[in-house]
Specification:
40% of the residues lie in helices and 19% in strands. By secondary structure, the protein is α+β, with helices and mostly antiparallel strands.
Length: 191
């Protein structure tokens, strides 16, 4: 009897997971919504908006079977500003050449700003890059009031290698969350 109950629980769990995954069309639609949000503030996010627009065009050319929505969805993107990108010499994002950098700026799981802020200092958030994590820092810089921002960076980071979320809850979709950050988060050895 217990094994029958266990099988039912496993089946229901698998059904819920399968139901939660978006279709490629739903996912691409949400990416387009994110791109539109970024495009509304071209002085702040045009570099990422343009890269996203090019990526959406490429995704639309792929057969649905080649679009891995499980890998792409239910993540939180940390979107660096134009100033942050140009500050490290990036004027355009080329996904094929910058895959590791992009994956390091994507947190596994969907987190609101309040959820990230609730993570204790020293707590880690897994990224899409090979088991690398971002750590929550206490230090804050700039003109933002204490408690209104969160600093994240690679473990062992210093004030020059972490970034603050300064545009929280920039995008809240069904499959993607996005927050604007004032720096380019990069693991050791990149850029």
């Amino acid at each position: 009897m217990a094994s029958k109950h266990l099988l039912t629980v496993i089946f229901l769990t698998l059904a819920l997971v399968a139901a939660a995954a978006p279709t490629p069309a739903e996912f691409i639609d949400e990416l387009e919504q994110l791109q539109k949000v970024l495009s509304k503030n071209p002085f702040k996010y045009s570099i990422v908006a343009n890269a996203l627009q090019r990526s959406i065009k490429q995704l639309k050319k792929l057969p649905d079977a080649n679009v891995n929505v499980e890998f792409l969805s239910e993540n939180t993107a940390l979107i660096p500003t134009n100033i942050a990108l140009t500050g490290v010499g990036i004027r355009a994002i080329v996904p094929k050449l910058m895959g590791d950098l992009i994956r390091f700026n994507v947190i596994e799981g969907m987190y609101s700003f309040a959820q990230i802020k609730a993570i204790p200092v020293g707590g880690k958030l897994p990224t899409q890059l090979n088991n690398k994590s971002l750590m929550r820092f206490k230090t804050q810089r700039g003109f933002l009031s204490p408690g209104t921002t969160v600093a994240l960076g690679p473990p062992g980071a210093n004030v020059l290698t972490w970034a603050q979320i300064d545009d929280p809850d920039l995008f809240k979709g069904q499959f993607i969350r996005a927050h604007g950050v004032d720096g380019v988060l990069k693991p050791n050895g990149l850029i």
